[in-house]
Specification:
Elements: H1 2-18, E1 42-45, E2 48-52, E3 68-72, E4 75-78, H2 84-104, H3 108-111, E5 112-115, E6 121-127, H4 141-148, E7 170-176, H5 178-182, E8 215-221, H6 228-231, H7 239-244, H8 261-281, E9 290-291, H9 295-303, E10 365-371, H10 376-379, E11 401-405, E12 422-425, E13 433-434, E14 438-440, H11 450-458
Parallel strand pairs: 10-13
Antiparallel strand pairs: 1-4, 2-3, 4-14, 5-6, 7-8, 9-14, 10-11, 11-12
């Protein structure tokens, strides 16, 4: 008995000695490192409230853009639209991932990783990105034949030009349906009532397979529609743009077009994956996802902190004091090049707004995250306003309308106003619609919370 008492006492002493909190409440200290880093090519849009909607009398459109005060959280936003060359990085990554799989069938040991870090066999082997692909001068005939499958066959090429087979450029990804998970009636089974309100990690955990329904899988062909220049404008010669706009190096820094809402979503998912893979390899915590801006975020960012302004530059006119146009749109009743460009122009060609954002008016219109509803301003919340609906292929066409903002090179000045709302269908790709990404800012809120500051100091 005496020995037992001594063992218990020794254990208590060891436990107390092994703890460094000295009985104080200091939180869990063994947490992943965080990297407070501004993403490359993005600018900081601070939190704030603003009057969303039409600020002046607009009788015809006031029913769908009635002014209301909206609060927006802070976020990072791409300073320009995504360019052809940036989107090409995505296309080439998809190309390479398919190539590694093809080469893995030939030499799995070199091109694939068949076990995880604990030595367990993987059902689907991972790609060994460190292995170099010999795209040219490959002396392995079997590998050359495998890589040739990614390109148009020689007897089917236009102008004898070597081109990727766009039909194969498919990107697969998953996303978690948090909005369905958050519904209080999602776990309707009697056995799962105890999990209601217990957070996402336990939501529907007792239902057979119900949790799996929250994980949605997508497979999207991500190659831009290079024929959009012709089918958007009948009886108009746009053949040269069709052949060159996405492929030719002179257009590298022009905004990518011919990209649907679904393709833009896939790009944001891939960009998130690229960043988080880097952070995890460097032992940092994951970043918040890249995504399309909500309609409220887009309008708030476009206004540049100038409430009530009809245009991003803060004034009521589309010309500066010298008579130069301030955006790329359709001026002078159809003199498209009156502002310097007949169609799209290189990004950041015009001056930025007060947040440092370029081309928030004109050049190309931009996809937003929201589903379009003419009455959204009446029912959407005034805190981070967001109207979401993920339409399926079977849904009615009206349910596939997504918000498009900013106007483009082909639009009159009404459509480049900060308050003007428009829409396009999520599976359509146009020669006048592009996109840019945002990322919710997870740093400390401006005006530092005292407890947050205290915790940071303690660590």
């Amino acid at each position: 008995m005496k020995k037992l008492v001594l063992l218990v006492a020794s254990a208590l002493i060891l436990i107390s000695c092994g703890s460094s909190d000295k009985g104080e409440l200091i939180g869990v200290q063994d947490r992943p490192k965080t990297l407070d880093m501004q993403p490359y090519g993005m600018v900081d849009v601070p939190q704030g409230s603003f009057t969303m909607g039409s600020a002046d009398e607009d009788v015809y459109h006031s029913y769908k853009a009635a002014p209301k005060t909206v609060q927006v959280q802070s976020f990072w936003m791409d300073e320009t639209e995504i360019t052809n060359n940036e989107y090409r990085q995505f296309v080439y990554w998809v190309r390479d991932s398919i190539a590694y799989r093809l080469l893995g069938d030939i030499d799995a040991e070199k091109y694939l990783i068949e076990a995880d870090q604990w030595g367990q066999d993987l059902e689907t082997p991972l790609i060994n990105w460190k292995a170099k692909i010999e795209w040219t001068n490959n002396k392995n005939e079997e590998e050359r034949d495998a890589l040739s499958q990614l390109y148009i066959k020689s007897d089917e090429r236009f102008y004898n030009k070597v081109q990727l087979d766009a039909a194969q450029m498919n990107y697969e990804y998953t996303w978690i349906d948090l909005h369905t998970a958050a519904k209080k009636d999602f776990a309707s089974d009697q056995a799962s009532k105890e999990y209601r309100g217990s957070g996402f990690n336990n939501r529907a955990a007792s239902l057979h397979g119900a949790r799996k329904t929250l994980i949605q899988k997508e497979k999207i062909n991500i190659y831009p529609d290079t024929l959009c220049w012709i089918h958007d404008f009948a009886y108009s010669y746009n053949d040269a743009a069709t052949r060159s706009y996405f492929d030719h190096p002179k257009y590298d820094n022009y905004p990518v077009v011919g990209v649907s809402y679904m393709q833009a979503q896939a790009f944001a998912s891939w960009r998130t994956q690229q960043m988080n893979n880097y952070l995890e390899n460097a032992d940092y915590a994951r970043f918040e996802d890249f995504r399309l801006p909500t309609e409220a975020e887009w309008e708030y960012a476009a206004r540049g902190g100038v409430d009530g302004s009809p245009y991003p530059w803060g004034g009521p006119y589309v010309n500066n004091g010298r008579g130069c146009f301030l955006a790329n749109y359709k001026p002078l009743r159809g003199a498209y090049d009156g502002d310097g460009g007949a169609t799209t122009v290189v990004v950041a060609h015009y001056a930025p707004n007060n947040f440092g954002l370029y081309d928030m008016a004109g050049n190309v219109a931009e996809w937003c995250e929201d589903a379009f509803d003419a009455s959204a301003y009446d029912f959407a919340h005034d805190l981070n306003q967001y109207n979401t609906y993920r339409a399926s292929d079977d849904d009615d066409i009206v349910m596939k309308q997504k918000v498009v903002r900013g106007g483009s090179w082909k639009d009159s000045k009404f459509f480049i106003r900060t308050s003007t709302r428009s829409f396009e269908y999520q599976d359509s790709a146009k020669s006048y619609i592009g996109f840019r990404c945002v990322q919710t800012y997870l740093g400390r809120v401006r005006g530092d919370n005292p407890k947050t500051s205290s915790n940071v100091y303690r660590q």
